[in-house]
Amino acid sequence: MDSSDFLSFLSTRSSVRDFSDEPLTEEQIASMIRCAGTAPSAGNRESWDVVIVTDEGLREDLSDAAFQQHHVMDAPVILVVCANYIRSMSQYGDRGILYALEDATIAATYMMLGAHAGGLHSCWTGAFDDKGVSEILGLPTHIRPLVLLAVGKGTLPPVRTGRMPIIEHVHENTW
Ligand SMILES: Cc1cc2nc3c(=O)[nH]c(=O)nc-3n(C[C@H](O)[C@H](O)[C@H](O)COP(=O)(O)O)c2cc1C
Questions:
Q1: d(CA 105, CA 143)
Q2: Handedness of CA 105, 107, 109, 111 (dihedral sign)
Q3: Phi, psi dihedrals of residue 17, rounded to the nearest 5°
Q4: From edge to edge, which strands make up the β-sheet containing 77-84?
Q5: Which residues have any ligand 1 atom within 6 Å of their CB?
Q6: What one-character DSSP code corresponds to residue 174?
Q7: Backbone torsions φ then ψ of 9, nearest 5 degrees
């Protein structure tokens, strides 16, 4: 794959929010998580964890905690990607909070792209009640849920979203 193929791969991913109820195979799920396992992390501490949620009742509860977003209930799998503060803070102190958030964000991104590479669809879901999600999944206090990554097979063609001109993000040498 050259850089132009890679850009095409990235450009053909879109968030999908309408899912069929076709379950994913264990291998499809494992493959996304293996992708996350290749991600860089601060000090190689890998300060992220994931809760694989397939149970229908739990998906309904998560959807409620995510302000009734229906795709969280409809997707056959929700990968709840979490920052593990203890793993990072035990090496980096307070700075470890930031690193754990970064590690988990990168891991979730790799899972999302792994889903795309596997012909699956996903929706990164960040709007949810943290406490609600933690209670539903029994997360320890040092684990912060960051992303509910809804994954499955979409039922509608993905809709491409626009982007601001890339130059608006770019600053040379100084701001
Ligand atoms: C940090 C973050 C939080 C997001 N939260 C939600 C969400 O709660 N619900 C949702 O439907 N989409 C959510 N999204 C998906 C964005 O709406 C979507 O990525 C954006 O509109 C660009 O569209 P695209 O993913 O199709 O390129 C979130 C994305 C990110 C990165």
A1: 14
A2: negative
A3: -125, 5
A4: 48-53, 77-84, 143-152, 121-125
A5: 14-15, 17, 69, 123-127, 161
A6: -
A7: -60, -45
Distance 92 CA to ligand 1 centre (A): 30
User: Looking at ligand 1, which residue's alpha carbon is closest to its atom 31?
Assistant: 124
157: pLDDT strictly greater than 90:
no
Residue 140 and residue 92: Cα distance in Å, rounded? 20
Q: Ligand 1 pocket test: pick from 110, 123, 130, 144 the residue with the most ligand atoms within 8 Å of its Cβ.
A: 123
Alpha carbon of 115 to ligand 1 centroid (Å):
15
Q: Contact at 8 Å (CB) between 58 and 70? A: no
| Token couple for 22 | 């076709």
Helix (H, G, I), strand (E, B) or coil at 48: strand
Which domains can be identified in the chain, with CATH numbers? 16-155 (3.40.109.10)
pLDDT at residue 115, rounded to an integer: 98
Residue with CA closest to ligand 1 atom 22: 161
The half-sphere exposure of 84 on its side-chain side, counting CA atoms within 13 A, is: 15
What is the per-residue pLDDT across 69-124, written as a single tens digit (0 to 9) for each?
A: 999 999 999 999 999 999 999 999 999 999 999 999 999 999 999 999 999 999 99
Q: Within 10 A of 37 (CB to CB), how many other CB atoms are there?
A: 13
- CA–CA distance, 36 with 111 (Å, rounded to integer): 5
